[in-house]
Write a structure and sequence with these properties.
This protein has 5 helices and no strands. The radius of gyration is 15 Å and the shape is elongated.
Length: 124
């Protein structure tokens, strides 16, 4: 397990989640969940906030885990969330480049996090 990389991923995920909790329209826009004028409907913003708040919370758990067992657990939850997002977004977003991008980003972060979990850092 690459603890330093996992904590860095946790910090990035926390920052991302907090930013998008405050500005869910950024996620809505990138996922194609806006109207013709690029506006995010209030119900869409409300629906996205728990999703990105979950990202902030899981990232913070990775960042602040006190021991390896806790870090592994927090990381497993983060990986499950990313791959779950990929499956759900892939099945529900309108077809097209936005759906493909949303799935690619979710799979990419999940894969990076899983690789850091499985990686054995070299001794110096």
């Amino acid at each position: 397990m690459d603890t330093k990389l996992l904590r860095l991923i946790g910090a990035a995920t926390t920052a991302y989640g907090l930013l998008l909790t405050a500005r869910p329209q950024l996620l809505a826009r990138s996922a194609g969940l806006v109207d013709e004028e690029g506006r995010t409907a209030p119900h869409t913003a409300v629906s996205l906030r728990p999703l990105v708040w979950r990202d902030a919370a899981s990232g913070l758990a990775m960042l602040t885990a006190r021991d390896e067992r806790t870090l592994r657990t927090a990381t497993a939850l983060r990986v499950a969330a990313d791959f779950g997002d990929a499956a759900l977004l892939g099945a529900t977003l309108p077809r097209g480049i936005k759906r493909s991008a949303a799935v690619a980003v979710s799979v990419g972060w999940g894969s990076l996090t899983l690789a850091a979990l499985l990686r054995t850092p070299r001794e110096r």
